[in-house]
Queue: 2 jobs
Job 1
Amino acid sequence: MVELEQESRQKISGSLGQKPVQTIKDIDTEDYIKAGTFACSGCQPVLGIKLALKALGKNTIMVNSSGCMTLTATYPFTPYKIPWVHNAIENADSTASGIFMGLKRKGLEKKVNILVYAGDGATYDIGFQALSGMFDRFENVIHVCYNNEIFANTGYQRSAATPLFARTTTTPIEKKSRGNLIPRKHMAKIMMAHDSPYVATACTSYPLDFMKKVQKASTIYGPKYIELLAPCIPGWILSTEQGRKSGELSVQSGLWPLYELENGKFSVSMQPKMIPVKEALKMQGRYAHLNDEEIDEIQEMVNKEWESYNKGEFWTVHEY
Ligand SMILES: Cc1ncc(C[n+]2csc(CCOP(=O)(O)OP(=O)(O)O)c2C)c(N)n1
Ligand code: SF4
Ligand SMILES: [Mg+2]
């Protein structure tokens, strides 16, 4: 048992030939997803694919659960220069397990990156069982959850990743309804509870940080989980060019903390400036209805979260 555990957590070569990304100059100039997909202009989840594949390189197989990103390739066309599998929303990680077992039979399970790129609806909700099973079996797969905080593809419904008070089509703003009233599920904690060797958060507005994390994940054998905040233009009610800025404001206000857990050891990756959350929220039309009390409530929760993070505590934090 102990032997298996040691085998499982060993360092592996990772990213297989890609230059380690330290500065912008190190980024692979090859695009493994080409332009011209059906995604909205300014879509941050598509940017996330582009960055993840530049970090991992051509020795990568990618599995996409049903969601907006599956529309990137529409038969008989594909923008991908790597093998890409469209999968039902509930079992992307089971497909990744099958790919892993196939590679293992050929002795290639440490020589090919398997990337599951799944939405928050697929990760937190509908595909959770398959995700949990793959982590339980300790397979060598990177699961990136591109979190746009809604079921975007089916019309912007609430998911378990939707933050407090956000307007969605299933948590509308009406006389008696103030948007989503259920605080979001703490997925990073849930994945850490699976004893994952690497769990991290990232945001598309900080590409180098994300790419470094993806590359680090590829050097650790076992199931890795990275949660990527990726603003959705229509879902967050933004204008096309506001995706990057809204991600930046989410990070710098402390609404979206960037951290890592390596073998359970917690560290903050970037100390936010702690600008008032109001600054981040006001850019997003999904919060246009908020009154001062509701904004104060979110601010208080974020302040509390950061009190814990700044003491190096991870498990006591409750997300807003
Ligand atoms: C079992 C099942 N339930 C519902 C759907 C419908 N469906 C397709 S895509 C999607 C939204 C997925 O949301 P998310 O994973 O967050 O990805 P996003 O659309 O935001 O990119 C849903 C609900 C489905 N395909 N299969
Ligand atoms: S709806 Fe959102 S996630 Fe879907 S393609 Fe458009 S911007 Fe991207
Ligand atoms: Mg989503």
Note: The radius of gyration is 19 Å.
Job 2
Amino acid sequence: MKKSYFILLMIICIIIVFFMLKITLSQSTALKESLKMGDAIVYQKKGIAHHGKILSGKTIIIDPGHGGKDVGSTGQNGTLEKDITLITAKEIEKKLLEKTGATVILTREMDQTVSLQKRVEMAEEAKADFFLSVHYDAFFTHDVKGITCYYYKWKDKWAAKRMNEYLFNSGIKTKDRGVEKGDYYVLRENKKTSVLLELGYISNEEDEELMNSQVFQQQVAKAAVEAIIDYLGK
Ligand SMILES: [Zn+2]
């Protein structure tokens, strides 16, 4: 009897140890996943290369401005810049993948904090052919509206001009604020061709309404893709 009790006790011990090990292992996996989430994750997608593979072999970075702790500017009707930049970036990504065969990388794919330095490093690491940063503007008075296309380095002015032309040929109804030199980190510190779009004033009621429309988002995406093809596809 004593011996069988001992064996039973051993079996119970083995079962307990087994379950403890299992719990420890699953906890460490969860930790690994959350660490990965905390870091800027590189999302890389390859486009379906039909339509003559116009940009196959090219890598394009789309950079949705702000995110996570950095909200950006806030509209009168509650639009947050970090949310609307992500919507636009994903719309551009979708069109690029559909039309060009390019590899597309987003600097963030969710509401997360990514430093400006990291965003530029991603362009460098991916050997990007084009870096497009998406922002929405704000001003302390509510009357200012319109879209501005920024470049920093002289060599990138032509790319910014293409963006401006395609945006305003697409039928977008807001003020054309032209092409300007902008001292933005993601342009200044970027070795790759880089353009930053300020796609309307979140502080202006009409622009805010416009940027929240599906039509506008699609017009922007179409124009951005056409401008990138014009710039890289030759
Ligand atoms: Zn911004």
Note: The CA atoms of residues 127 and 147 lie 28 Å apart.
